[in-house]
Amino acid sequence: MDSLRRKTVQVNLVRIPPQLKELASRIPENYPFTERHGRLLNLVTSNTKEDMLKVLFQFFDPLHHCFIFPDYQLVSTLEEFSQLLRIPILNQLPFNGTERDPNPEDISQALHLHSSDVITHWETRSGVKGFLSKFLFEKAQSCWNSLDL
Prior knowledge:
By secondary structure, the chain is mainly α. The protein has eight helices and five strands. The chain has helices spanning 18-26, 32-37, 42-45, 50-57, 78-85, 104-111, 115-121, 133-146; strands spanning 60-61, 66-68, 73-74, 122-125, 128-131. The protein has a three-stranded antiparallel beta sheet with strand order 1-2-3, with no helix packed on it. Strands 4-5 form a two-stranded antiparallel ribbon. Helix 6 (104-111) packs across helix 7 (115-121). The radius of gyration is 19 Å and the shape is globular. This is DUF7745 domain-containing protein. InterPro entries: DUF7745 (IPR056647). Pfam families: DUF7745 (PF24924). Residues 20-145 form the DUF7745 domain.
């Protein structure tokens, strides 16, 4: 009987940092970022109801990466995300998890950073590799200050 019990997921929603909301609010609607990345900034600027997300995640099945309700399953496809965010998929292959970790040169080239910045600020926290938000906010602020809008 115990095997029929449903496994639940503990969800800790992280609030979007005010600095990120503030930076996103400065970007004009017709700016090239919006043309290139679609509605991605809407994820930052929209007012999401945290209670509703917590209720929704009670139905999330982490093993199958979908929402399971009594009578059906709800699975978002890459195409649906592409349409919602208005980011074209084009001829890109989806990630499958077997890709190699990028080296500092790849990261610096993709993000237009110096290799020394990547080597200095690339960290691993709780098994996740990446940049700390403090570094990213500083870089975003310096880029914003150098723009001529």
